[in-house]
């Protein structure tokens, strides 16, 4: 039962595979934040392992989540972010992180700022 793992083996979790698994996600290449909302617009916690899993999962998850929330909401309060040209998909280069091949965006001040 299960898989035997030799002592001192290094195990690297396939985070990327988990995030683009078409069995879990419809259209994994499409940027679709509303996929995390149910019919009543409530947040549905996804089956993701962005911060690892189990005993050695990330101890900074709560710090990271609150920092990202403040960072992103501050930007989105002030700017509309538009692609310079239409992106066909989110495919990119996989290294230690994952980067779009090309993703130039325009930060357009929101109406409130334009009027000031
Ligand atoms: C978006 C931001 C972050 C992501 C995606 C992330 C992701 C991860 C993942 C996947 C692991 C587990 C690696 C493994 O399985 O071996 C991990 C571990 C860890 N993370 Fe993060 N992390 C983030 C931010 C942070 C921050 C802000 C801190 C510190 C304030 C932090 C501290 C740690 C530490 C100390 C571990 C090792 C835990 C252990 O081995 O017991 N991380 N992180």
UniProtKB/TrEMBL annotation:
Gene Ontology biological process terms from the UniProt entry: hormone biosynthetic process; progesterone metabolic process
Signal peptide (from-to): none
PROSITE patterns with a match to the protein in the record: CYTOCHROME_P450
Gene Ontology molecular function: heme binding; iron ion binding; steroid 17-alpha-monooxygenase activity
UniProt keyword Heme, yes or no: yes
Pfam family, one: p450
InterPro entries in the record: Cyt_P450, Cyt_P450_CS
Keywords, ordered alphabetically: Heme, Iron, Metal-binding, Monooxygenase, Oxidoreductase
The keyword Metal-binding appears for this protein: yes
Positions of transmembrane segments: none
Record family assignment: Belongs to the cytochrome P450 family.
Protein name from the UniProt record: Cytochrome P450
Organism: Allacma fusca
Lineage: Eukaryota, Metazoa, Ecdysozoa, Arthropoda, Hexapoda
């Amino acid at each position: 039962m299960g898989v035997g793992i030799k002592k001192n083996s290094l195990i690297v979790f396939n985070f990327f595979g988990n995030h683009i698994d078409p069995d879990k996600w419809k259209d994994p290449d499409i940027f679709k934040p509303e996929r995390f909302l149910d019919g009543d617009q409530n947040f549905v916690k996804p089956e993701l392992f962005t911060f690892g899993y189990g005993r050695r999962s990330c101890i900074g998850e709560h710090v990271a989540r609150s920092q990202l929330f403040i960072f992103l909401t501050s930007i989105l309060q002030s700017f509309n972010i538009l692609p310079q040209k239409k992106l066909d998909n989110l495919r990119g280069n996989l290294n230690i992180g994952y980067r779009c091949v090309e993703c130039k965006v325009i930060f357009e001040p929101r109406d409130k700022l334009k009027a000031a």
